[in-house]
Amino acid sequence: MKVLAIIPAYNEEGCIEATVDEFVRTCPGVDYLVVNDGSSDQTEAICKRRGFNYVSHPVNLGLTGGFQTGCRYAMENDYDAVIQFDADGQHMPEYVPVMAESMEADDADIVIGSRFVDEEKPVSARMIGSRFITGLIKLTCGQTVNDPTSGMRLFNRKMVSEFVRRFDFGPEPDSVAFLMRKGAKVSEVQVQMRERQAGESYLNAWKSISYMARTCMSILFVQWFR
């Protein structure tokens, strides 16, 4: 299976070099594309200096725009699947082949790199939100997703075409729920994740609460009108 790792990057000068180097070293048979999403730091300069495979947006479009750019690249270059891979070093590339094998073995449309297949969710405000989203997906789709907020997701070509043709359709839990309602088969693979290796996450406490609220509203109401 021909897989493309899409690595959206916004102001990731502290992480991008180590992230790509580790990915190439660990997954020599998997291609990657860094999507420099209008960074104002040295992210693009590093990609250019190192000869990384990358494209750049002139302005910041956000995760949805970055991922859709990668999906369009994948469709135009005949990839069978794409994996969403964080630029900040949290995702571990050794799980990419495992997820690809699971997609083929389970005939899955989406494979989620889950922290909670074999492990219990810790007790925290963020995990309470994750449990709630799991419950909403179960209620609306009839399937259980143990780690709905995991950003490490593998999508087959059929799913990639959905991201290309829909202008506002990002790689988020509500989109996964929508695709599940339309018949997509989802499987999960146990993975480990690290803390961000450098820089700061854009998700502070307030933004995290807002993100959870929007996601829940979308799963319960908005997706029915898509």
From TrEMBL:
It holds the Pfam family Glycos_transf_2. Residues 6-162 form the Glycosyltransferase 2-like domain. Coiled coil: none annotated. Gene3D superfamilies: Spore Coat Polysaccharide Biosynthesis Protein SpsA, Chain A (3.90.550.10). Belongs to the glycosyltransferase 2 family. PANTHER family: RFBJ PROTEIN (PTHR48090:SF7), UNDECAPRENYL-PHOSPHATE 4-DEOXY-4-FORMAMIDO-L-ARABINOSE TRANSFERASE-RELATED (PTHR48090). This is Glycosyltransferase family 2 protein. It comes from Paratractidigestivibacter faecalis.
